[in-house]
Amino acid sequence: MPEAAASPIHSRMKHQFETLAQQHHADTLGMWVFLGTEVLFFGGLITAYVLYRTAYSAAFAHASLTLDIVSGTVMTVVLLGSSLTMAMAVHAAHLGHRKTLAVFLILTIVLGLAFLGIKGHEYYQKWEDHHIPGPGFVWDGPDARAAQLFIYFYFALTGLHALHMIIGAGIMGVLLLQTALGRVRTYTVEISGLYWHFVDIVWIFLFPLLYLVDRHK
Amino acid sequence: MAASTEPLVGRTPNYLNAEHSVKSWLLTTDHKRIALLYLVSITVMFALGGIFAMLIRIELITPQGDLLSSDSYNRAFSMHGIIMIFFFLVPSIPATLGNFLVPMMVGARDLAFPRINLLSWYLYIAGAAVMLYVMVTGGVDTGWTFYAPFSSLFSNGRVTLTVVAVFIAGFSSILTGLNFIVTIHTMRAPGMTWGRLPLFLWSHYATAVIMVLATPVLAVTMMMLGLEHVFHIGIFDPALGGDPILFQHLFWFYSHPAVYIMILPGMGVVSELIACFSRKRIFGYGFVAFASLAIAILSFLVWGHHMFVSGQSAYAGMVFSILSFLVAVPSAIKVFNWTATMYKGSISYDTPMLYALGFIGLFTMGGLTGMMLATLGIDVHVHDTYFVIAHFHYIMVGGAVMAYMGGLHYWWPKLSGRMYPEIWGRISATIIFLGFNLTFFPQFIAGYLGMPRRYHAYSPEFQVYNVLSSAGASILAVGYLMPLIYFFWSMRYGPRAPANPWGATGLEWKTASPPPTENFEQPPIVLEEAYHYSDEEAPIA
Amino acid sequence: MPSTSTYYKIFALLMILAFATTGIAFIDLGIFNPIVAMLIAVTKATLVVLFFMHVRYQGRLTFVFAIAGFCWLLILLLLISTDYLTRGWLPLPGAIPPMGF
Asked: Residues C42-96: pLDDT tens digits?
């Protein structure tokens, strides 16, 4: 791996480390530990969802059909695209190409905001249909209780995911600013990229779990 | 060495006198200063938790519920549990001794992420502040276990705020664990191979793994509970098709490994103490190291033993029972190895050693009664009785707190540059040991005979055990007050400590007491195994 | 570090899998629908982890760190299932236990 010191985007070694390589290794491992905690954080919610889905499979399947599969697929494609642009941004950072880095950061942010926009539209649809869990919940169908559970999990899982996306977009914004000011560091981009890809992976699992329950029926 | 009456500021530059401003303490990134910040904070929380314990024990002197109403009593034991577990025991050794020693023991200048270390302290303070607010505005009455649907739909306590406090404190814990894992992996000094790591570090590594993998599930469960409380959706409410046992599964998935977060660091301390005060290497170093990892992994497989009578499937109960027997094995391996270390060792009975010996005996009792509880048939009878309470207090107080006290005494000279008064150390250790047993041994009997837990009134035939227990609690309180006093005293009047007052092995003893801010004058190089005690070893310097 | 063409190839694969997972959802495979959907999701996630997150190009330690969280989640799912899968097994008279599969 090319040592970033030769490029205009270099790292500054912090005092507790002996070498830059040690610092980069520590940074990478640190981010992976954090992502591991996120796997279990989402995982707890997903476990609860999986159990309820298996117990109330008919009602959950019926409720899942109220989700728009086209917008779900579009969101998946958008996020995968944003992972591509993120990977390209990290690549540019390693090579020291600040302009390319900026372009790909902008693209990543745009795709992320597009995702959030579509998600927001979905939420609005749910609100119009009175499918918000709580006292105002209206459901036509046999098992309103289980349907409300499904909708709760839909909002909890996608809401938590959207929150992470907003934070991710914020981080990318900060990186963009640093790039413009000439103060960005390669490894910060790399580590932030790991976070962004992780948020994409969460959606990779949420999409089939929530949107593809017995679609063929 | 004559007692010095010079003030705390040492004659040579060290981490304590490097800078004096409040800002230099509150914005420090020095792991040693952060350790002291934690020490002060958790001592305050321990005292608060202790006050609730006093309330409980005073109420239980008489069989009638005369001091507290049943609702107030519920709040008292809930606050006691929440504060002691989340705000004292979980951080205790890792955040104080661990923060101080992990970088020094690997031979580094600081942890991998010093600013994240400071953030973890601020998160702890934020969580504690929310908890204090909860306390003064009525508290919670759900028990520290927050079982749904009572906590989500029926409790009239401050449930939402409490789960927020616990959530924040959990995040603090995760960041500490993250820091330890990365530091131990990437910042070991040249020559410090995994096979030469002090067992304190193996234990803290295993603890950090649990912190990082278990706490997020607690966090999301607390979040689900909070949402349930606010929105009344019914994830855990049977009336809406939910399953209350699901809450218990998710809660205990964290909370069982959490008890190992609380005991593993203590085991690490005990390994250091036994080796030093037997002047011998730890017998079976490799076994003890791998036992720490085994405990960390196995701890995740047994949570259902808290739920034998909750309504979970009996077959799941059997699976969890068998796995719970398995998790006792690595703990037992450690006890055997500590004992074998002492055999033909040159034992000295300094205060830290008294605590270590107390730990071994009391932890063993706690552990064996744990095996009784793991036995499905016995647990059906003693679940939710004082037998369980006695069991976990033997581990948590007789084990973890004793180890914490032993570690504090052992490393006090390194932390503060002063020696504590040894006579008073031994006296208070003895008082604590006697007070502890008087407090909690009668509870085994009361529980076995059927006294239920979490009741403010009880049947009169249990009174004698409760009176003994409350008497023991007052003795225990005196025992804990004494170190508080003489540690403070020693900071001004204690004799100055040399670099290695105990003649111990370990990199932390090769630098001054108290250490300079960068820990070592020069980065150390490790050439020997961890416990290279021998006859010609370094005399007390 | 992979080249940009590698990134584009992986992206193409991911897109194919994304459309595949949506398409297959409309075919009735009975019990295998969720299984196939999860397998595709795992494949996509693996591609992202190995190539976009560079785990393919870093040491074994990074790989262990990357996979640990998922393994632990598996422990949670598997052991919690021992309860829910066996709830109806004891021949108790009366109602079906809640949530039993």
From this structure: 999 999 999 999 999 998 999 999 999 999 999 999 999 988 888 877 766 544 5
Owner of token pair 């996120």: A38
pLDDT at C99: 60
ipTM comes to: 0.92
Whole-angstrom distance between the N-terminal and C-terminal Cα of chain B? 11
Closest chain B residue by Cα to residue C99: B243
Question: In chain C, whose CA is at the least distance from the CA of B308?
Answer: C83
- Provide the terminal-to-terminal Cα distance of chain C, rounded to the nearest Å: 47
Give me the helix-helix angle, B351-374 and B314-342, nearest 10°. 150
Query: Dihedrals φ, ψ of B403, to 5°?
Result: -65, -40
**Which residue is it, tokens 């096979």?**
B195
Greater model confidence, B59 or A141: B59
Which pLDDT band, with edges at 50, 70 and 90, does A12 fall under? Answer: confident
Residues 6+ apart with CB under 8 A from C32: none
A210 CA: distance to closest CA in chain B (Å): 17
Nearest residue on chain A to B171, judged by CA atoms? A37
**Residue (of B213, B303, B313) closest to B249 by Cα position:** B303
Mean pLDDT in residue range B370-380: 95
Residue B385 in 3-state DSSP? Answer: strand
Q: What is the DSSP secondary-structure string of A58-70? A: HHHHHHHTTS-HH
pLDDT in tens, C9-45: 999 999 999 999 999 988 888 888 889 999 999 999 9
CB contact under 8 A, B249 and C83: yes
Bond into B149 cis (ω within 30)? yes
How sure is the predictor about B232, in pLDDT bands with cuts at 50, 70 and 90? confident
For residue B449, give the DSSP letter.
Answer: T
- Paired residues of B496 in beta bridges: B418
Give this prediction's pTM: 0.94
C33 contacts on A by Cβ (under 8 Å): 212, 214, 216
The answer to whether B66 and B377 are in contact (CB under 8 A) is: no
Residues B219, B167 contacting (CB under 8 angstroms): yes
Taking the CA of residue B52 as centre, how many other CA atoms within 13 Å lie in the half-sphere pointing to its CB?
Answer: 24
Residue A138, pLDDT score? 84
C32 contacts chain A (CB < 8 A): no
Token pair recorded at residue B330 = 């690595």
Mutate to test the interface with C, among B182, B188, B213 (most CBs of C within 10 A): B213
Q: Which of B112, B215, B221 has its CB closest to that of A26?
A: B112
* C16 interfaces chain A, CB cutoff of 8 Å: no
Q: Hey, is A3 helix, strand or coil?
A: coil
pLDDT reported for residue B347? 95
Please report, as a single letter, which amino acid is at residue B134: V
The string of DSSP letters for B183-242 reads HHHH-PPTT--GGGS-HHHHHHHHHHHHHHHHHHHHHHHHHHHHHHHHH---SS-GGGT-
Sequence-distant (≥ 6) Cβ neighbours of residue B28 within 8 angstroms: B34, B37, B118
Per-position b or e across B364-382, b if 16+ CB within 10 A of its CB: bbbbebbeebbebebbeeb
A6 band by pLDDT with thresholds 50, 70 and 90:
very low
Decide: A8 and A101 in contact? Cβ < 8 Å: no
CA B531/CA B516 separation, integer angstroms: 24
- What is the C-alpha separation between A172 and A175, in angstroms, rounded? 5
- Within a 13 Å sphere around the CA of B163, how many CA atoms are in the beta-carbon half? 24
Tens of pLDDT along A110-166?
999 999 999 999 999 998 888 888 777 888 877 888 888 899 999 999 999 999 999
Note whether B41 and B125 are within 8 A (CB).
yes
Partner-chain contact B234 A145, CB within 8 Å: yes
